[in-house]
Design goal:
Blueprint lengths: L2 H14 L1 H7 L4 H20 L6 H15 L2 H14 L3 H14 L2 H19 L4
Helix pairs in contact: 1-2, 1-3, 4-5, 4-6, 5-7, 6-7
Length: 127
């Protein structure tokens, strides 16, 4: 693997946790390995590893985009990652208010429901 992959892998593990990253690599090597390499180098190595935006703010941006686009599975994943990036429930509320105004109330309403579920799971130790 490349140096960019290694950098991205370290950032991805720090943000999403080892368990998630390990699960993502346990799939079909023909279908999954090229995709994992792509996102690890591009998303995590080239974008998330930049030091221009702190992880908390990068996490909030990501949550806003995922909520606004209705990507609920990835939204759940990145809401869980807030525990590792420092984005708080209060930060996520502010994000959802922006989502409501700029992407629509139905998108924000769904995302708030998901956030409520995810944070409850994390507080119960199920996350």
């Amino acid at each position: 693997m490349s140096e960019l992959f290694d950098t991205g892998d370290a950032t991805r593990r720090r943000t999403l946790g080892d368990a998630h990253v390990n699960r993502s690599r346990a799939g079909d090597p023909v279908l999954d390995a090229p995709f994992v390499e792509l996102i690890t180098e591009a998303a995590w190595g080239r974008v998330w590893s930049r030091d221009t935006i702190p992880p908390r703010e990068r996490s909030m941006l990501t949550v806003a985009l995922l909520a606004g686009l209705g990507n609920h599975e990835e939204l759940r994943l990145h809401l869980r990652a807030c525990a590792n990036t420092g984005a708080t429930k209060e930060d996520i509320l502010e994000v959802m208010l922006h989502v409501a105004i700029y992407a629509g109330v139905p998108r924000a309403n769904s995302a708030i429901r998901i956030a409520r579920e995810v944070f409850a799971e994390l507080e119960a130790g199920d996350g």
